[in-house]
Amino acid sequence: MEITKGLQQVLQGNTKFIVVTGGVCSSIGKGVLVSSLGVLLKHAGYSVSVMKMDPYLNVDPGTMSPLVHGEVFVTADGAETDLDLGHYERMLGEPLTRDASVSAGQVFEEILQGEREGAFLGKCIQLVPHVVDTIKKRLFNVALSHDVDFVMLEIGGTVGDLEGVTFLEAVRQLKMDLGHTRVMHCHLSYVPFLSWTGEVKTKPTQHSVSTLKQAGLAPDALFLRADKAIEQESAEKLAIMCGVSRQFIFQVMTFNPVYQLFCELQKQGVDKRVQEHFKLAPRTSDLTEWTKFIELIKNPVGQVTIGLVAKYVGSNDPYISVVEAIKAAGYHCQQKVNIVVVEAEALEKETYAGDGKAWTQLKALDGIVVPGGFDKRGIEGKISAVRFARENNIPYFGLCLGMQMMIIEFARSLLQLDDANSTEFNQETKAPVIAMLAEQVGLSRKGGTMRLGSYQCNLVPGTKASAAYAQPTVAERHRHRYEVNNSYREALENVGAVFSGIYVEKNLVEITELEGHPFMLGTQFHPEFQSTPLKVHPLFKAFMEAVVGRQKAKGN
């Protein structure tokens, strides 16, 4: 699509754009703000789509360590994306596609491939117009292909970052191209509280807006991220110093649960002000289902402790979708959920079921979840966690790698195949119960080459999976290279393994259960990517119901 043609098509339509940038520092919640604005608009009857543009040079986060950039969220069409897309999907309840995730790496890759193919007809390629036009084309493509009232755009990073300059220039040009009533620029900025003076300081936000103005941008609204309430005097000072109407300056406080932010922003009139900016007849956002959910969270009838046996320890970001799915399942079962991260490497270093710190944590759990991951670090600890859950009838839920750990443990303990392993961890194993998918053999490129995206799973009647889903087939999202080795399926079935979900086209195991166990179930896919606060994934709900049932049985 040529940029001029795309612009003309957008001008002929009615789609409006809301751009969110961040100031002072990172990790202040731009993704949560974008989602919150989207929720307010969606519940006022508007259709919404969301995009995230990241200035990093990676094509996508798929090859980055989760400890560096957090969870890799996978869309139904197989894109490996930033974790913020998970926030968008969970809060808005709308599935996104690969065009919702753009990185500087993708933009430069597209341009350089075009240059090699002669697409620029001998021109000198420059940041302006070529890079900026490519960014704008990505935005126009989303607006034109999704036909929604609003496209929400988050610009990753922090205003002032060198790598973000071209994205800010694209926003500047967008405002020029479409005009004030088609684009709204919201700037989220951190406002620190200095405990030693007892004061809220607005100067960092003033400097952040000054940096925006140097890039030719003046925000239409300021959202002040703070832990302490900001007084009227400070807000009025920011209005004067930043050139933003006082009516368009809002506070974004820290809430637990975070969903209270939707209601708080509505109280401040954000939904009305956004519509006012776009000269729309005001509609009221109906947040009834969210207020009911918040009341459910605030009024539990019990509590459970769930262990996350993890490789990436120190931050929940690598497992954010898993954590949110567990918590949501607990809320819908009227339970407060305490999540304990158990370090997998510590389990393997300590005596099995002994008195070490990690095993003491594990033995106190009401349920165990082993999430996805790669590489062999911590693998033996995860296998030990499977064994403990199996031997002690503790509800267990394995996700992707977590299912493969089940298969290895079953093979070792129930089939007496002591050498059983995955060829990912031991290529010389005599019992490769987990092996590389046929289409993965021989691939040298790492990025974007796994089995990615949504695939159909046929459920076996009479199984826990079938009962949970209450339908014969489902579509679930994948991100893996290794699978259950079909050569061992019959032997595993003979000792109690139940393969309750199958990808029929290639006869691949999708779900595994253990016969006679209260709840021991693993999935080769990632169900957490389709679980939302208001619509919990059936398998997470079934797991939580098993946890609560076991706890009640123990109490009796």
Layout of helices and strands:
Layout: H1 3-12, E1 16-23, H2 30-42, E2 48-54, H3 66-69, E3 73-74, E4 80-81, H4 84-92, E5 101-103, H5 104-116, H6 127-146, E6 150-155, H7 165-178, E7 183-190, E8 193-194, E9 199-200, H8 203-214, E10 221-225, H9 232-242, E11 249-252, H10 260-267, H11 270-277, H12 288-298, E12 302-310, H13 320-332, E13 335-343, H14 344-349, H15 357-363, E14 367-370, H16 379-391, E15 396-399, H17 401-413, E16 420-422, E17 431-436, E18 451-459, H18 464-469, E19 473-480, E20 482-484, H19 489-494, E21 497-503, E22 508-514, E23 520-523, H20 538-555
Parallel strand pairs: 1-6, 1-7, 2-5, 2-6, 7-10, 10-11, 12-13, 12-14, 14-15, 15-23, 16-17
Antiparallel strand pairs: 3-4, 8-9, 17-20, 18-19, 18-21, 21-22, 22-23
Characterise this structure.
It is a single chain. Helix 9 links the parallel strand 10 (221-225) and strand 11 (249-252). The model has no long low-confidence stretch (mean pLDDT 93). The protein starts with a helix and ends with a helix. With 556 residues, the chain is of the alpha/beta class. The chain contains 20 helices and 23 strands. It is 39% helix and 22% strand. The longest helix is centred in the N-terminal third of the chain and has 20 residues, at 127-146. Helix 1 packs across helix 6 (127-146), helix 6 (127-146) packs across helix 7 and helix 16 (379-391) crosses helix 17 (401-413). A 9-stranded mixed beta sheet has the order 13-12-14-15-23-22-21-18-19, with helices on both faces.
